[in-house]
Structure prediction request, 253 residues.
Amino acid sequence: MSPSTTPSPGQRQPDLLGQTVVVLGGSAGIGLETARRARTEGAKVVLTGRDPERLRRAAIELDALGTAAFDATEPAALERFFRDLPGPIDHVLVTAGRPVYGRVLDMDLEEIRRRLGEHLLTAIQVARHAAGKVRPGGTLLFMSGTGARRPGIGLALTATLTAALPALVANLALEIAPVRVNVIAAGFVDTPLSAQLLGDQLENRRAQLRDTLPIGRVVGPADVAALAIHLMVNTALTGATYDVDGGQQLVPA
Prediction:
């Protein structure tokens, strides 16, 4: 090896060099931050989102390989996206969707059926459509949460989905192996979605978490993105759920 090609002591090869990462829900928050980190690690990225303008801005920032504006919970649109997606790809992160809050006794039965089906069926559909596109050793990553592991009024649907997704993913990891399948379970993450959900209570929530979390700060999208990239890179990890909540579960309610 000549001196000109010898890596300096501080250099390393990017972990995702030459790979392709697809982010469903990649125009903001956790999805966008993960896409940024993937690009830093040498990957090409394909982004999807509901808002065409926000998606366009994200694509320009990251020089995205491709984009598609659609609702990932719509079965026909999701099928069309994967059918038209050039393959092979290496990793898929699904951040699309939002938590479901409300008392089940007050909710319309059709709304409950739609919400339950929307979340779990989206995961199943992604697995079905992506299995033939993802290279062996690549991964499907699904976002979940930790907050609804404790019972609470208005959390029944979210708690049900929080419990169901890890079981689904563990079985998918066997069904579509050697493609790997994992869940990232986040606590409160300081994202635009959190700001939308909390409104004028956002700063109070931030202050509360800074005062009570063992890490002494609020979890941000970069924390979740770092875990997502690690799960893509470490090919020994499949069929499991990984928490990133700054110790939120350790704090008394």
Remarks:
- Residues 15-242 form a domain with the Rossmann fold fold (CATH 3.40.50.720).
- The chain has one domain: 15-242.
- Residues 38 and 229 are 7 Å apart (CA to CA).
- The chain has eight helices and seven strands.
